[in-house]
Amino acid sequence: MTILDPNPESQAAADPSDPYERAALTFPRLSGEQAARVASYGREESLPDGAHAFGRGQRSVDFFLVLGCAIEIFDLDKHGAPNVFTTHVARQLTGETDLFNDRQILVSGRARGDTRVIRVQRRDLRPSPHATMKPGIFAVGDARSGSVKHLACGVA
Question: What is the CATH code of the structural domain delimited by 28-124?
Fold first, then answer.
């Protein structure tokens, strides 16, 4: 796994096929306006430090807009120890393409610190290219392959 380097000069020689080298695309941070629009789709909640937001193998999970602190995305190694491979911070979204189908999710997410989030329930999220005039509100994709698709969504 690649560790993100905040120095943009070192990223100039990065492998463009590695999604972890394209953090701004793979894990976008919403503008204040976009975050406010997403917030209208869900409800604010607090997650205590270490609380699980979702777990590997679940289906039909909600997704979260982080308002404060962070949500760590992790899997377990062969010994059962957690391997955190990315952390979502303020104005970032959790989720993957499995939000739009009923497949089992591949990772788990937990609060790092006392975390404030907007929870958007899956049943309230319906893909609709006509729901907004400003596409790109939700960025969904598979970070493991680097496939990120921006689409507009509407509330059922």
Answer: 2.60.120.10
Q: What are the sequence ranges of the domains in the chain?
A: 28-124
Structural contact between residues 125 and 155, judged by C-beta atoms closer than 8 angstroms: yes
Beta strands in 1-156, from DSSP E residues, in sequence order: 43-47, 52-54, 63-76, 82-88, 108-120, 125-127, 138-142, 147-151, 153-155
Whole-prediction pTM value?
0.69
The backbone region for 90, taken as left when phi is positive above 0, alpha when psi lies in -120 to 50, beta otherwise, is beta
H helix intervals, the chain: 8-11, 23-26, 32-39
Judged against a pLDDT cut of 50, whether residue 148 lies above it is answered with no
Q: How far apart are the first and last CA of the chain?
A: 38
CB 151 within 8 A of CB 140: yes
Do residues 27 and 89 lie in contact, with contact meaning Cβ atoms separated by under 8 Å?
Answer: no
Residue with tokens 């962070």: 70
More confident residue, 92 or 129: 92
Q: Let me know: does 120 contact 64? Beta carbons within 8 Å.
A: yes
